[in-house]
Design goal:
The complex is a heterodimer of chains A (about 700) and B (about 625). Chain A is α/β, with parallel strands linked by helices. In chain A, about 35% of the residues lie in helices and about 15% in strands. Chain A has 4 domains: about 5-105, Carbon monoxide dehydrogenase alpha subunit. Chain M, domain 1 (Helicase, Ruva Protein, domain 3), CATH 1.10.8; about 115-285, Rossmann fold, CATH 3.40.50.2030; about 305-445, Bifunctional carbon monoxide dehydrogenase/acetyl-coa synthase(codh/acs), Chain M, domain 3, CATH 3.30.1650.10; about 580-700, Bifunctional carbon monoxide dehydrogenase/acetyl-coa synthase(codh/acs), Chain M, domain 5 (3-Layer(aba) Sandwich), CATH 3.40.1470. In chain A, the strands form 6 sheets. A 6-stranded parallel β-sheet of chain A has the order 3-2-1-4-5-6, sandwiched between helices. Chain A has a 4-stranded mixed β-sheet with strand order 10-7-13-12. Chain A has a 4-stranded mixed β-sheet with strand order 8-11-14-9, sandwiched between helices. Chain B has 25 helices and 16 strands. In chain B, helix 22 (about 560-570) links the parallel strand 14 (about 550) and strand 15 (about 575). The chains are: A alpha/beta (about 700), B alpha/beta (about 625).
């Protein structure tokens, strides 16, 4: 039999029963006998909602059945199956109302049967606000009572309103599971027709809250589909009548999830053999997202802690990406590869780490979502800084593979452990990016070998790939730039202007990231900056950019250039990957990266340079920037470009060599430019450096004086 | 919602009538007049019974003269003409594919042609057994391009792409000896067979027609599609607009027309260039609008959202607006009439391909190595021409519809992933669509393709059939000028779901798609072949068992016959609204509408009454469902 044939057959069966029941009742009481559900102004609610006609007597009920018959067309089209489903539901309503004849009380505890209007008004607000995120209709008997109760419990824990029909009610009683409207588990009745009492709630919700006009069947179905987050869990075995009722549910937009092998219809009729997965399957089918309001960690979580500094002496343990392999990463995956809210620790926990020690950590947040784009990965990643800093007793700096995290002794004493990092990341990513993230799991690696593997084999290639995408974009090729003020928690007057060839100085926010951030959160930290009014093309100064910088720095900054470190250089927050500073003797600049602990020919170490350059103030001659910017054609363009670079730490040189050589070749026709640049193995003082540069014939020596 | 309304064919015609008035003022000719001049058509030609393959003739078969001078009967002549027609189409599509392979061979990291979809390239390379590990993507592109070019003249074996077909289909092709060999060989063999004194047995000629068709669909066209994706990006859903109203009165209007995206991609690139836009402004225009006609339009709409000015029989209309600075053409389906017509206006008619050279055109020879310079010169020429516009002749009908286009197979699968449930379903398959079909929510699918033809009231058959089918819960995939007819009418607006039966409407809502899916240009019918192959593999059913049929209600070109042959030979019943010049032979007609079913499990239906054609398709789909018990 085809699916539609099953629906038609079930519909015919119920119709036959209804017709018999009405005829019997008329024979007994006469056509004028009044019929009504108690405590409702909409009797019979479903029939009234669909047709706009109220039914008050047995005679009218018989007429109504005639109308129902007209819905029961038998073309092989879904419309016919839908209408037959609706007809089945209406028949169920007729059978149910007959039970209430003569003031009868057909339902006894724990069953509720018909629910009065007051119940709907009570449920209305929490349904609208999402406090009740969904309505489950569970029908039939679970394979075992325990599985049934577990399912009910799982919904209840999520705040979902549960209604029960048939054997599941007995299963709850059997295990002594408490039911009742007060705990949002409502047994309706044991006959399948009693399912109409929850449909009746949905229909009346449409009339009461949706302002749907009775009789506007199409409007009603649209309302229930778009606004009533209900779904059906129907246990095997399914008979024709249940399938016909299911067609009615699907017509109203409520997906049916069953463990019986039957036809499948995407998002509508879903076969899930594993009852323990009914919950997750149903929520996904109905696009219900459970709000996370509580993060399960033993310390406080609030933005009040975002600027908290943890001194060396107060720290239990430190993870330091500048010394050992660390990284943080968001990775978009297929939904099937992810178990939502799985937090996994691979390696020792904090307990096993000596107090005050430096350790490796790599945490990978894997997400899946129908609207997820790879472009969003770095955007989420960049927010980790803020998320982790909001934890009381945790300090986080840096990004990508240059992170540093300190856990305070107090936080440790309160019970904070590695997995709690996962809990925070999970909760925040799920709640803040609910628009695109459907599922999320976190893997936390503390095993040093694994951290090395993740950093070098997983994270670095991904970072490189993201950077490569940027390579194809140029400042001239785009119409807008973006501001970035993610760091204003630390550096309130700093504004990054992010362009395709000049990523944020933290090295983590590229133009694409900023664009994605803006798309995800149009009011958020990244705003569009137009670039229509050029002031000075040479140094990259624009009226629009200055206006934006003024606005976003709350007036602290007046004007900035994009391509100069001497004239109105861009400010630095404190998150920069590198600093470059003028080395007057050689007429060039030295660059130091955060990982470099030694001395530079400028006579200052990285921390000393950082203290001069950070804090959102303009320091002509010094500038913070990302590693990637070093090989940009826009690097110090106003001062002559990368040819000014005279010194870099050896490690950094190696990291940027290929791209920097390519840029120098393109701009000046110089081969192997990097070999002309000094490093700590060659010189840590200006004189030795100069001798080296002269020997190599470094181009900076013959360029115009910088100052 | 609320404001959505289809544009009717009557409205199209009223707009055309208004444009023809402009034409009259300047003494322009139009196809409408030429059709009148050519009517009635030659009956011998229409029936396919005229033979002029040697100089003893021409011979025309009549009851009194039942055989040609050589003794060939009417069946041999009709079948021979049919095969020649097919060979013309297969050669055309396939040569387009070859050009794309060549463009891929010329791709360089610094452009002008780059590899925009390296993942697809890797996929194809692996499919063809090319080692990809550690190779530079451009080296790989050149290697694969060479292999692709090799498919045209390969010495032994069959087309590489046929391995994409389900096992059963491949077995049928081998059994019937129609598995396509080298593309050029199938074309040449066809012409050999139709030479004087070769084949005159209808069975043999029709068999070769199917084989030549398959060399197109699973060879040349597929190469055209696949490597265009590698070069220009695999289409994904994108918003655009369709009909003449997309031309902007205050802008420089450049219309691209033809089939090969290599040219139009570059034109779009340069029309977007700030320098060019500034130049246009300096000439008094507000900007530059590129729009398209015919399949070039489909190509750039699918990948860039470039609006579609119209389909085949609307090509003269774009010039008649008086607002077209340049109509830039590549190959195929270009009216030679555009030359004289452009002379009535300020319009530059720019031909670019050695394949399609026409009188009264500016010929700017386009080639892959200098594409950027060529494109720039063309855009600049159009801008320079803006000042020559005659304002009194400008009339752009205010008529356009929104459309969501870009449904490559990859995009369709991605869309289907969106309705899966990760707890139970796998992604990356066509299974959700199969479930919709087996449950009856969707009754089946129709691949609507083909041209316009004055024999049929233009666009009416496409649009009316689509309306009928979607109201019956049958989803449409469309390409070529059929797709543009749908877009012009509004059937590719997602709001068009309101015109569907409850089943298709629900599917459109859940998957967020329009009921008519734009799969691309006419070479992209190869995408439809890949799609049915996937449906077959994912469902375990043979292609011929699927409730899916093909339909070309307004077809006109040789390419269309080649397409029809490969669609049928792939196992899909195909419904035509125009007879392919075979009515003169009962044997050939019987073969095509029945006999070939024994070979490939599918056949043609020809029905000129559009309403009946629609009913016949619905009936066939329901028969296939009944046979499966679904």
């Amino acid at each position: 039999m085809t699916l539609f044939d099953v629906v038609f057959s079930g519909n015919d069966a119920v119709y036959g029963l209804t017709e018999g029941a009405i005829n019997d009742a008329i024979a007994k009481y006469g056509e004028d006998k009044a019929i009504a559900f108690p405590d409702t102004a909409y009797s019979l609610p479903c029939y009234y909602g669909v047709t706009g006609t109220k039914v008050a007597t047995l005679g009218e009920l018989k007429n109504a059945l005639g109308v129902v018959k007209t819905l029961m067309t038998r073309e092989k089209r879904l419309n016919d199956a839908f209408m037959s489903g609706i007809a089945t539901a209406l028949c169920a309503e007729f059978i149910e109302v007959l039970k209430y004849m003569d003031g009868a009380v057909p339902y006894e505890a724990p069953c509720y049967g018909h629910l009065g209007d007051a119940v709907i008004r009570e449920l209305g607000v929490p349904l609208v606000t999402g406090d009740i995120p969904g309505v489950a209709v569970i029908l039939g008997s679970a394979p075992t009572a325990q599985e049934g109760v577990d399912l009910v419990k799982s919904y209840q824990a999520q705040g979902i309103l549960v209604t029960l029909v048939g054997g599941i009610i007995d299963q709850c009683e059997e295990l002594g599971y408490k039911t009742g409207a007060n705990v949002r588990v409502i047994p309706l009745g044991k006959d399948v027709t009693s399912v109409i009492h929850v449909v009746s709630v949905a229909v009346r919700a449409a009339l009461i809250f949706g302002n749907i006009k009775p009789g506007d069947a199409a409007g009603l179905m649209k309302y229930t589909m778009e606004r009533v987050p209900a779904f059906v869990n129907a246990f095997a075995p399914l008979n024709d009548v249940i399938v016909a009722c299911g067609a009615g549910a699907i017509a109203l937009g409520f997906p049916v999830i069953t463990n019986e092998e039957t036809f499948r219809v995407p998002k509508s009729l879903i076969v899930q053999k594993d009852v323990s997965k009914f919950n997750a399957t149903s929520l996904e089918a109905r696009d219900i997202k459970i709000k996370i309001t509580h993060i399960d960690i033993p310390v406080a979580f609030a933005s009040a802690f975002e600027g908290e500094i943890i001194r060396r002496g107060d720290m239990q343990v430190e993870f330091d990406g500048s010394r050992v392999d660390c990284c943080e990463l968001v990775h978009a995956k297929d939904a099937s590869e992810i178990e939502d809210h799985k937090i996994e620790l691979i390696g020792p926990d904090v307990d096993e780490m000596p107090v005050g020690s430096k350790q490796s950590i790599a945490y990978v947040v894997e997400v899946a979502g129908k609207n997820m784009q790879a472009d969003f990965e770095p955007v989420f990643e960049r927010k980790f800084h803020s998320y982790l800093n909001c934890i009381e007793g945790i300090m986080h700096t840096g990004q990508r593979d240059m992170i540093r995290i300190r856990i305070s002794k107090d936080a440790y004493a309160a019970g904070f452990r590695a997995k709690h990092i996962g809990e925070v990341l999970y909760a925040k990513v799920k709640s803040e990016f609910a628009a695109v993230v459907d599922k999320c799991q976190v893997k936390i690696y503390t095993d040093p070998a694994e951290c090395t593997r993740i950093r070098h084999e997983v994270a670095m290639p991904m970072f490189d790939k993201r950077d490569e995408r940027l390579m194809t974009l140029t400042d001239e090729g785009v119409d807008v730039y973006y501001s970035c003020i993610m760091c204003q928690a630390f550096s309130p007057s700093h504004v990054c202007v992010v362009t395709p060839e000049r990523l944020g100085l933290c090295g983590a926010v590229s133009w694409l990231d900023a664009k994605a951030t803006h798309q995800l959160d149009p009011e958020g930290p990244c705003q569009v900056i137009t670039k229509e009014k050029v002031i000075d093309e040479r140094i990259g100064e624009y009226e629009d950019v200055n206006d934006a910088v003024r606005k976003f720095s709350q007036g602290a900054l007046e004007d900035v250039s994009l391509y100069s470190i001497i004239e109105k250089p861009m400010t630095s927050c404190g998150c920069f990957e590198c600093i470059c500073g003028i080395e007057p003797l050689s007429n060039g600049v030295c660059i130091a990266n955060r990982e470099y602990a030694g001395m530079t020919p400028i006579g200052m170490t990285f921390p000393e340079l950082a203290s001069m350059t950070g804090g959102g103030v303009q320091t002509p001659g010094f500038m913070g920037h990302g590693k990637h910017f070093i090989a940009s054609k826009k690097f110090m363009k106003a001062e002559g470009g990368v040819a000014r670079i005279v010194w870099m730490p050896k490690d950094l040189k190696e990291q940027v060599a290929d791209r920097l050589n390519a840029t120098a070749k393109e701009l000046y026709g110089i081969d192997n430019f990097v070999d002309m640049i000094g490093d700590e193995t060659i010189a840590e003082d200006p004189e030795t450096l100069l001798a080296f540069l002269e020997e190599k014939g470094h181009p900076a020596l013959t360029m115009e004086p910088m100052m | 919602m609320g404001n959505f309304k289809l544009t009717s064919v009557e409205e199209f015609e009223a707009a055309t009538a208004r444009l023809l008035e402009t034409g009259k003022k300047v003494g322009a000719d139009a196809w409408q007049y030429r059709v009148a001049n050519q009517t009635p058509h030659c009956k011998f030609g229409e029936q396919g019974v005229c033979c002029r393959i040697c100089s003893m003739g021409p011979c025309r078969i009549t009851p009194k003269a039942p055989r040609g001078i050589c003794g060939c009967d009417v069946h041999g002549i009709v079948a021979r003409n049919y095969l020649k027609f097919t060979a013309g189409g297969a050669a055309t599509h396939s040569d387009h594919g070859r050009e794309i392979c060549h463009t891929l061979y010329c791709a360089k990291p610094e452009g002008p042609y780059k590899v925009k979809d390296p993942e697809k390239l890797l996929r194809i390379a692996k499919e063809w057994g090319v080692e990809t590990e550690g190779k530079d993507i451009y080296d790989l592109a050149h290697e694969v391009a060479l292999l692709g070019l090799g498919e045209y003249g390969k010495v032994f074996g069959n087309q590489n792409f046929i391995k994409r077909a389900p096992e059963h289909t491949q077995e049928l092709w081998q059994r019937e000896e129609i598995a396509p060999r080298a593309i050029d060989r199938e074309v040449a063999s066809s012409l050999h067979m139709t030479h004087m004194g070769c084949s005159s047995k209808p069975e043999a000629l029709i068999r070769q027609s199917l084989r030549a068709g398959l060399a197109d669909g699973w060879g040349g066209s597929m190469a055209g599609t696949e490597f265009s994706d590698v070069l220009f990006g695999t289409p994904k859903p994108i918003e655009t607009e369709a009909n003449l109203g997309v031309m902007e009165k205050d802008n420089v209007n450049i219309v691209v027309h033809g089939h090969d995206p290599s040219l139009s991609e570059m034109i779009c690139e340069y029309a977007d260039d700030p320098e060019m836009i500034a130049y246009a402004k300096s000439k008094g225009a507000k900007g530059i609008t590129v729009s398209g006609v015919c399949c070039t339009s489909n190509e750039v709409a699918m990948r860039r959202g470039i609006p579609m000015a119209g389909n085949f029989l609307q090509q003269e209309n774009v010039v008649l607006t008086g607002a077209c600075e340049a109509i830039v053409v590549d190959v195929q389906c270009i009216f030679p009439a555009l030359g004289p017509l452009s002379k009535c206006f300020h319009t530059k008619f720019v031909t670019t391909s050695p394949i399609a050279q026409m009188p009264d055109s500016e010929y700017i020879r386009f080639n892959a190595e200098t594409a950027d310079e060529n494109a720039k010169a063309i855009v600049k020429m159009a801008i320079d021409n803006f000042v020559n516009r005659k304002p009194e002749l400008v009339y752009i009908p205010d008529m356009k519809q929104k459309a969501t286009v870009g449904y490559s197979v990859e995009a369709i699968v991605k869309t289907l992933d969106g309705v899966t449930n990760s707890q139970v379903d796998e992604t990356g398959t066509t299974k959700p669509l199969i479930e919709c079909i087996t449950s009856g929510v969707i009754r089946g699918a129709v691949a609507m393709v083909g041209c316009n033809n004055p024999r049929v009231r233009p666009d009416l058959a496409h649009i009316e059939l689509m309306k009928k089918l979607i109201a019956n819960d049958i989803i449409i995939v469309a390409s070529g000028c059929s797709a543009q007819a749908a877009a012009k009418a509004g059937l590719m607006d997602k709001e068009a779901r309101e015109l569907c039966g409850a089943g298709l409407k629900r599917v459109c809502e859940l998957a967020d798609i329009p009921p008519v899916l734009h799969m691309g240009s006419c070479v992209d019918i190869s995408r439809m072949m890949v799609l049915v192959a996937e449906l077959s593999k994912d469902s375990g059913l043979n292609i011929s068992q699927l409730p899916v049929v093909g339909c070309a209600p307004e077809w006109m070109s040789e390419k269309a016959v080649s397409i029809g042959n490969y669609v049928v030979a792939t196992g899909l019943d195909t419904f035509l609204g125009v007879d392919p010049y075979v009515s003169g032979s009962s044997e050939v007609a019987e073969l095509l509408t029945g006999g070939i079913r024994d070979w490939v499990e599918a056949a043609y239906t020809v029905e000129k009454d559009i309403d009946k054609l629609g009913d016949a398709m619905i009936e066939r789909i329901e028969e296939k469902r009944a046979a499966l018990g679904i």
